[in-house]
Specification:
four-stranded parallel beta sheet; alpha/beta; 7 helices; Protein-Tyrosine Phosphatase, Chain A; 4 strands; about 170 residues
C-alpha cells in the first residue's frame, strides 16, 4: 500500500502539477476553506476523489463549539471505497492528525497495527485518537486503539483523550 499524507496546500500543489496515479481522500473541516474549491477544480488530475467532512476533535469540550465528529457510517463508507485500491493521497488541513489517523485505520484494515504504523512518520504525524478509536470499533479490532495509545505521540496529554466522548452510533 502506497500512502502520501499531506496538508491542503500540499495536495493543491500536487494536483496543480498534473495527473497523479493515486486515489485522493480529502478530509475537510466543516467550516470550509477557499482552498477546497481550488482542489475540486483539479479533480480530473487524480483517479478519484473521496470527501470526508469532520473537524479535528481532541476532547469532549470541542463538541460544545459545534465541531463535527467523524461518524461510524462515514468511516465504513470510506473503508468500502478503498477496498481493492492501493495508492492514496490523504489530505487534511495540516497533514498531521486526521489524515494520519485515516491512513493508520486504512492500513489496519489490511495489516497488523504494527505494520500499519509504518505508513506514518511518527516524528511528524500525531494520529487523532478519536479517529483511531472509531477505526478500532468499525474494524472490530481493539488492538488498533491499544497499539495507537501505546506507540503514538498524542497532542493531547491526557491519559485517555476520548474519555467523555459520546459512544459511537452505527449509522
Amino acid at each position: 500500500m502506497d500512502v502520501k499524507i499531506c496538508s491542503t496546500e500540499e495536495l493543491l500543489d500536487i494536483l496543480q502539477n498534473g495527473y497523479v496515479d493515486s486515489y485522493v481522500i480529502s478530509i475537510r473541516d466543516t467550516a470550509g476553506s477557499s482552498l477546497y474549491a481550488e482542489i475540486d477544480k483539479y479533480v480530473l488530475n487524480c483517479i478519484n476523489l473521496f470527501h470526508l467532512y469532520f473537524d479535528d476533535i481532541w476532547s469532549p469540550e470541542h463538541l460544545f463549539y459545534n465541531y463535527h465528529t467523524l461518524r461510524y457510517g462515514q468511516l465504513l463508507a470510506l473503508l468500502k471505497w478503498v477496498s481493492g485500491k492501493n495508492s492514496f493521497i490523504i489530505q487534511c488541513t495540516s497533514g498531521l492528525s486526521r489524515s494520519a489517523a485515516i491512513a493508520y485505520v486504512i492500513g489496519c484494515g489490511r495489516m497488523k497495527p504494527e505494520e500499519a504504523a509504518k505508513l506514518l512518520d511518527l516524528n511528524k504525524h500525531h494520529p487523532n485518537p478519536f479517529v483511531v478509536k472509531l477505526g478500532a470499533k468499525v474494524l472490530n479490532n481493539p488492538s488498533i486503539e491499544t497499539y495507537g495509545y501505546s506507540n503514538f505521540t498524542m497532542l493531547d496529554t491526557r491519559d485517555d483523550p476520548c474519555k467523555g466522548m459520546p459512544e459511537f452510533v452505527e449509522s
